[in-house]
Specification:
Layout: E1 17-22, H1 37-53, E2 58-63, H2 74-79, E3 85-88, H3 98-107, E4 111-116, H4 119-132, E5 136-140, H5 149-162, E6 165-167, H6 169-177, H7 188-194, H8 196-216
Parallel strand pairs: 1-2, 1-4, 2-3, 4-5, 5-6
């Protein structure tokens, strides 16, 4: 869909985007080797919490969860008990499953924030198809991951060449927050838990305010 404008110049807001979490399964995640597994899991949960905090329509999907890929991360299922989960019996690309395509349509959003395991397949293929259908895609690389660093870098290049915005979870979270005067409690806990240095900064600021209040009184 060519609208004659750069659609990515429009900022992300809680009202214009949806979150698609693809194949974050207990088996497939073991194959991610370009980042420490604990850090990778933290990134995935941070992105999911960003969706929940901003009340984004969220679609979860898993590829052949009865097989070696394993079920979805239990933390995701617990976080989104009311969100639709598409268990795909065969299609490798989520967009090859009509139920997933329909679930995305039902969100009513044209901007899709997408992450998947792994970047070169489970993220790449549906991003390509979503772009072809006219969606605007934000591919979150650090909540996706790949078999090795070179494969991840090549995937990032391909995603960018196709026309997706490649970004990390922090950029998504900050864009949705937009202004710290607007309910900072929505974002600060996510940063504090999954971006530790910023949690320390927030603690320092709180301590400084308490000290200032004590001195003024």
């Amino acid at each position: 869909m060519n609208t004659g404008r750069n659609v990515y110049l429009e900022r992300l807001t809680p009202d214009n985007c949806a979150m698609l979490l693809i194949d974050h399964q207990t088996g497939t995640m073991l194959g991610v080797q370009d980042i420490r597994l604990d850090q990778f899991k933290s990134n995935v949960l941070a992105l999911a919490k960003t969706a929940k905090a901003n009340r984004l329509p969220t679609v979860l999907t898993a590829s052949y969860p009865e097989g070696p890929n394993g079920p979805l991360m239990p933390e995701l299922l617990a976080m989104f008990p009311s969100s639709e989960v598409i268990n795909r019996p065969g299609p490798i690309s989520a967009f090859d499953d009509p139920r997933f395509v329909e679930a995305v349509k039902r969100t009513g959003r044209k901007k899709l924030i997408m992450a998947g395991v792994t970047s070169d397949v489970c993220l790449m293929f549906p991003v390509q198809q979503a772009l072809a259908l006219g969606y605007e895609v934000y591919a979150v690389y650090d909540a996706s991951g790949c078999w090795d660093t070179v494969s991840e870098m090549v995937s990032i290049l391909r995603l960018s060449q196709m026309g997706a915005v490649v970004c990390n979870w922090v950029a998504v979270c900050a864009d949705l927050q937009a202004d710290w005067r607007n309910a900072p409690e929505r974002t600060l806990p996510i940063f504090a838990e999954h971006l530790p240095f910023y949690g320390m900064l927030a603690n320092n600021q709180s301590f400084t305010r308490v000290q200032a209040g004590t001195k003024s009184s």
